[in-house]
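Provenance and format

Records in this collection were gathered into a single text stream. Each protein contributes a sequence line and a token line. The two records reproduced below are adjacent in the stream.
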Amino acid sequence: MFRCHPPRSSLLATGLLAIPLALQAAPLATLQLGGSSAVQQYRIQGVIQSQRSAQLSVPVAGRLTRLAAHAGQAVKAGQLLAQVDGEAAQQNAAAGQAQIAAANAQLEQARRDYQRSARLAAEHFLSGAALDQAGAQLKTAEAQARAQIASARAAGAQAGLYRLTAPFAGTIARVNGDQGALAMPGQSIVELYDPTALRVELQLPASAYVDIRQDAPVSLSWRGQALKVGRIEWFPAADAGSQTRTVRINLAAGSQPVVGEMASASFTTRGKADVRLSVPAGAVSHQREFDAVYVVDATGKPSLRYVRLGAPQGDSYPVLSGLKAGERIAANAEQAAALTITHAGTH
């Protein structure tokens, strides 16, 4: 069975009819590709941290008799977070306070006795030796009071070892352990951080670190949102094991990213600037499996060329391959296609 094909002249005529006559008659609009310079960037991800964080523990062993903190809780400086069983220490602290009260009472009595003795000695009703004895008793009472106060403070400090309080205002990140569990010395019970002062810590390869311009602005983004950059700390020494150098980028006040998540940083390097090409959307001919543009030669004749384009950026496409700076292309792909069909029809 034979299939009839329309003549080439018929196809060309059909194509010409599908293209507006205004495009066929108008002179071909062209443009010359000129590259735009873009500085080289080094991009890396870092961890969002708090500038103030603490892992709180007690230096003594005991059972957790009180656990007044939970993850996500906002706490004030000095607020009680946990307490370890320390009944003996609490009793010693209470006894120390009682001893302070007794020592202060004895000191007050010694001062009154000395003042009375001084008045009697001034009126010649008391000998000088008796006055000296009263003065010695006053000094003894003062020394005993100081010793009792120091001993009581030591007992109070010992009792404070069994109490876990917040060193600064912040948010509870994690609670390790449950009420009634045994806490060991140095074991982290509560993890606390300050959400109002954040930073991003990055580990830059030593080879990349030396190429980064420290005087150029640094851009940060988190979940696609730009972060305001504050003070930047450039660590001078490299880690011997990983051969990386640490950079800490403090965030400006008011930034609210999540601690522990990743943020992207972009640094400017000292390398030569890249030349980037782009073509307007109207110059692109979107085929079924590829993209193309019409390149115009010195005689003004357009010819279709396959190109590889990036994602659209506004009303243009970045050129990944297929074109170079200085080449001339048709500004309107439809008009170039019409002229190409017309030229083919004349031959």
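Adjacent record:
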Amino acid sequence: MSERVLIIYGSRFGHSRDVSTHIAKAIHEAQPALQSTIIDIDDAKGSLNGTGLSRYRAVVIAASVQYGHIDKRVERWVKKNLSYVQQIPSLLVTISLSARKFTDDTPAPEEHTYTSKFLDHTGWHPDRIEIAAGRLEYPRYNFFDKTMIRFIMHISGGVTDRTSTIEYTNWDRLTDVAKDFVQLVENTNSEN
């Protein structure tokens, strides 16, 4: 019998959805008995509660970081469903352009400013946390976002060319994170 993994994502420009799809594929390749259901946070708010959540044995939450904050819709959902996400194996993946500059000296994911604020606000203690670099897509941004992101990229030494699209995401790293998560799920399920 297959077990189900819930993957919820919050995304403004679609990259968190792409990350979620990649993680779902990597989970299935690592363990075909684990079937992932990917749900946009806007759909999760109404359709997932109590009994709907109980059919899932693990949860992955992928959320974009915008202007210093993890997606507020995701934060509200986690707060509302905290007792559920605390009981099962869980993975939080935040996606941020600032992660493109991370080095070996970068603090642990739970100590990163955006992540620690999110965890403090929600009270959640996920089993695993990953911070992934995002995708820069100037042509896709509206005037405000393009201006703000160009300013942030300018002060952080990044690309400011308004025609640029640059993929910073380390997809191999996300595959490894998904495989590690599968191990966690299998170990947790064998203990129960």
